[in-house]
Amino acid sequence: MHTEPAQRVRRPAVAGRFYPGDAGTLARQVASLLGAVPETTGPPKALIVPHAGYVYSGPVAASGYALLGGSRGAFERVLLLGPSHHVPLRCMAVPSVDAFETPLGRVPLDRELIARLAAMEHVREWDAPHDMDHALEVQLPFLQAQLGAFSLVPVAVGPCAAGRVADVIEAAWGGPETLVVVSTDMSHFHGYADAQAIDRGTTEAILRRDTAITGDQACGCHAVNGLMETARRRGLEVELLDLRNSGDTAGDRSRVVGYASFAVREG
Questions:
Q1: Quick check: 217 and 177 in contact, CB under 8 A?
Q2: Residue 33, class by beta-carbon neighbours within 10 Å (0-12 exposed, 13-18 middle, 19+ buried)?
Q3: Across the 267 residues of the chain, what is the mean pLDDT of every consecutive 10-residue run?
């Protein structure tokens, strides 16, 4: 009897820490965060969203994901890019597994598209940058809640020229069936007022589609720069949705981390 090979699955690494590990509790928290966002306009082509624990950055991330309300079935694929916090990267890495899992279920990977990306000069198939990292994982419950079924293309992005990252984004851009999500936090561990000033400057740079954001401004700077290069090439519009820091959400104000959400739209 013929049997299908077992799926290779990337298990959740930060469930129970960055977000609830229980499916029911997680679904309720995501719904509550999304429900707190005022009425929004239609879905964008791309989002930039933060990736800290939900108690810290969840409200800011929700301001982006709320734009996907009513998008079930509309987006078939999500290109998800973000930094590697634990494994040094020279450029970009895609995983070898068949699915990413959260307490809300498994998200299948688009193996065909991933194979095409892995054949590009500055991309390699490498699981280590994905295995324990939270930057991409924490986006999945929001996407699962808003989109239902979709396939995933996860890309860990290290120090790469903006043009090289943009080439990967272009290769996966597709049409209206594809959503692009960039995961990044803003400044890290400054006092409240200093962080506000730094993050305002970074926000202004992103709004003018600057491709030279640095790691001091945003930990996912290389993915952000790639998306901004794509925005320049395609004449995309960038809109700030929310800008806060952990001193506004759930932490003290002596050492804060900044969070912002942006929508990127086709003209």
A1: no
A2: buried
A3: 76 98 98 93 95 98 96 95 95 98 98 98 97 98 97 97 98 98 97 98 98 97 98 98 97 95 95
Can you give the pTM of this predicted structure? 0.97
Q: How far is CA 213 from CA 130, 174, 198, 256, in A?
A: 23, 26, 12, 19
Cα-to-chain-centroid distance, residue 31: 18
* Length of the chain, in residues: 267
State the CB neighbour count (10 A cutoff) for residue 96: 14
Residue 166 φ then ψ, to 5°: -60, -35
Going by C-alpha positions, the residue among 158, 181, 177 that lies closest to residue 169 is 181
pLDDT of residue 1: 58
Among 218, 259, 223, smallest CA distance to 51 is for 259
